[in-house]
Amino acid sequence: MRSLPAHPDVAGGLSALRAQRHRLVALANSPHPVVDAQLDHAGLADRFDRIYSVEDAAALKPAPASYHHVLDAERTPARDAVMVAAHDWDIAGAQAVGMRTVFIARGNRTPLPGWPAPDAVVPDLTAAARVALAQQ
């Protein structure tokens, strides 16, 4: 996990979201040392305003406590937050607490049937930035 590379669109997508003045935070199921090492290795750590781990909330995603922990720490109402994720459990967990969601459908992936439908489905993070701009 510590040495996984970022997908090619991630750095540009994060830069586009930053240019739109979005506050960018990460929430990982990994402990802090692992997520910090992963984002450092991928060259992305400095693109986030804050990095959270579910270990702070003592609940793995998609438990509502992990999302509530971030929303409380950020002093942000759920309706004003957007979870951008490539995992169905992130979409389901974020929607359960009232967040808007964008599913990254890389390759031929689609959201799983039976899970809550995301607000938007996009092929990569660059497209997610375009969706975020349209929703402002």
Report on this model:
This protein has 136 residues and is an alpha/beta fold. It has a single domain (10-135), classed as HAD superfamily/HAD-like (Rossmann fold), CATH 3.40.50. The protein is 38% helix and 15% strand. It has a three-stranded parallel β-sheet with strand order 3-4-5, sandwiched between helices. It has a two-stranded parallel ribbon with strand order 1-2. α1 (10-19) packs parallel to α5 (125-135). The longest helix has 11 residues, at 64-74. The protein is globular.
Strand content: 5-15%
CATH architecture: 3-Layer(aba) Sandwich
Q: List the strand order in the largest sheet.
A: 3-4-5
**Name given to the CATH homologous superfamily:** HAD superfamily/HAD-like
Main sheet attributes: strand count, strand direction, barrel closure: 3 strands, parallel
Give helix and strand order, one letter per element, not per position: HEHEHEHEEH
Using only CA atoms, what is the Rg? Answer: 14 Å
User: How far is the N terminus from the C terminus?
Assistant: 34 Å
Secondary structure class reads alpha/beta
Number of domains: 1
Give the beta-strand count: 5
